């Protein structure tokens, strides 16, 4: 739960900065950067881009796999509030 709250805190900071500077593009570009960055790094860590995924996961222990998947879930939970705020902005405001 702390991961989602941390993502919400980052979004609130982005929203505050964009309100102070009166520039919505800071919020849009910052949120897009967070969402795309979290997704790409999570896919790299999880091995989605690996061509020989079975070969690489065959030799890792269960502790290594659990640690890797914990990092992936952390990144995904950090990106969820940004994704939701972008969705709400595009659907309800624009």
TrEMBL record:
Database matches in InterPro entries: DUF5316
What protein name is recorded for this chain? DUF5316 domain-containing protein
Superkingdom of source? Bacteria
Q: Which UniProt keywords apply?
A: Membrane, Transmembrane, Transmembrane helix
Which residues are listed as membrane-spanning? 7-27, 33-50, 71-93
């Amino acid at each position: 739960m702390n991961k989602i709250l941390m993502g919400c805190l980052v979004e609130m900071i982005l929203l505050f900065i964009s309100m102070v500077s009166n520039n919505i593009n800071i919020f849009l570009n910052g949120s897009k950067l967070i969402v795309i960055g979290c997704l790409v790094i999570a896919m790299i860590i999880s091995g989605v881009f690996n061509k020989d995924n079975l070969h690489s996961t065959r030799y890792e222990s269960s502790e290594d796999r659990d640690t890797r998947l914990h990092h992936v879930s952390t990144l995904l939970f950090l990106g969820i509030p940004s994704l939701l705020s972008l969705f709400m902005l595009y659907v309800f405001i624009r």
